């Protein structure tokens, strides 16, 4: 089967140029258009008719670019709530939504990613879980080719908005509450993935608190992994007064380790996932309303597709202790 990549190679143009010709974009020279059409006819390339139709009609079709959490065997509650919120709000706005997993495009060049989304008739993209390693996505944002919203990443330009809670302040707040309640002096902090934008922001929050309170801070990288947090807690918790975790999954791993070690140390998490209600030990955590965050991302994307420019949108967070009774009611 002839692919769009084959057509681009034969015609000596970029994949995105072939896509523009197929979708009748105006900013293509007549010479290039004729050359691409000749190759299409000669090779017998048949584009996705549905995708071409969607693109040519300029429908409000958006993509949710989701990164699956492979560091835990627990169900990925956060992404499911992201999808739920986005689909709910998109339905209200009469936007068509597709879900794309990051692993599907991670080996593509920016040109191939652009062509892929164009072939699906996509006008806007919401990116969840972006890291510093996602070079093609960074280039896609810089290109301004699509209207985009990044969740939990700092990118803002004319065609891109950022939506997130204030991670530095949220980490500061939950740690301060836990440390103050338990009069802690030595803090073990389990940070997230070193390539994550939220990791940097949350680390800034805990460092600010410890500097203000003159607390001894030990930082270890838990990679947002329950297993890694368990291992680090077993190694370092005896020399700390509390364990502050940059995610609930790490907090669960830390708490289970402390129970096995038969020592008490207060633990706090970050996210507010349902699993925290099943731990048996109530812990302070930052509750992020992931459905609301995703709804706001859809609203922001719709605003961008209406001709507005990008901006930073900050969502409020809440400090909670999740009880079993709360999640079964």
Structural features, described:
- With 329 residues, this protein is α/β, with parallel strands linked by helices.
- It contains 13 helices and twelve strands.
- It has helices spanning 4-11, 15-22, 30-43, 49-56, 77-93, 110-119, 135-143, 167-182, 197-213, 226-236, 248-261, 290-305, 324-328, and strands at residues 61-66, 96-101, 124-128, 147-151, 160-165, 186-191, 216-221, 242-245, 267-268, 284-287, 312-315, 318-321.
- The longest helix is centred in the N-terminal third of the chain and has 17 residues, at 77-93.
- It is elongated and about 75 Å long.
- Mean pLDDT is 91; it is low at 53-58.
Index terms:
six-stranded parallel beta sheet, 47% helix, 12 strands, 329 residues, alpha/beta, four-stranded parallel beta sheet, 13 helices
